[in-house]
Amino acid sequence: MSDGASDGWTRAAMVVGGVARRGDAVLLVHEHTLGGEGPDQWVLPGGRLEPGELLDAAVKREVEEETGLAVRSVGSLAFGTQHYAPGRDQPLLFLAFNVGLGDVTEDRFTPDDPDDLIIEARFVPVVEAIDLVLSAGVFPGSLSTAEFLRQEPGSGPMFSLWDLNQAADGPLARLPAG
Predict the structure, then answer these.
(1) Is residue 5 part of a domain?
(2) Which among 154, 149, 121, 119 is positioned nearest to 134, based on CA atoms?
(3) DSSP per position, 56-117
(4) What does the pLDDT average to over 169-177?
(5) Fewest beta carbons less than 10 Å away: which of 43, 52, 59, 75?
(6) Could you report the per-residue pLDDT of 13-45, keeping only the tens digit for each?
(7) Per-residue b/e over 37-59, b at no fewer than 16 CB within 10 Å?
(8) Which residues form the signal peptide (predicted)?
(9) What digits encode the pLDDT tens for the residues 83-117?
(10) How many domains does the chain have?
């Protein structure tokens, strides 16, 4: 596969997400898929890095845009996944970081999403969250998010590698990062 780079560096589409917990619940956003090419989906708040943006700044910006909540801190890596999708010549790298929020007293929030994709944002009990992230279909991002949510909080990060151009029932590799 071509990496699209002429300078010898491999290019990857970078996407970040934030993992915010409140008790036994996790913060999710319900969104339309980009370009409307698929069913609405439940995901961790997050999105693409802007040119020159650092990871922590991107996590903070994306969580605040998609939920309307103030991010107090961006912490350690929660999990990551890298995959090739059919027809794409560069991998997608998704990194989810633990985030601390300011005071949260409501259950549902008002996003300030410039892409106008967010339907709602709310804390969802983890058991329900697993079902919701898998409800739009089984993809590397949804499978990795569900697998992460099944872990005990504080279990340490994990990383999954996928290639959807090859027939596989799961990731090519799972790398515990801790």
Answers:
(1) no
(2) 149
(3) HHHHHHHHHHHH-PPEEEEEEEEEEEEEE-TT-SS-EEEEEEEEEES----SEE----TT--
(4) 56
(5) 52
(6) 889 999 999 999 999 999 987 766 778 899 999
(7) eeeebbbbbbbebeeeeeeeebb
(8) none
(9) 876 667 788 889 999 999 988 877 667 888 888 88
(10) 1
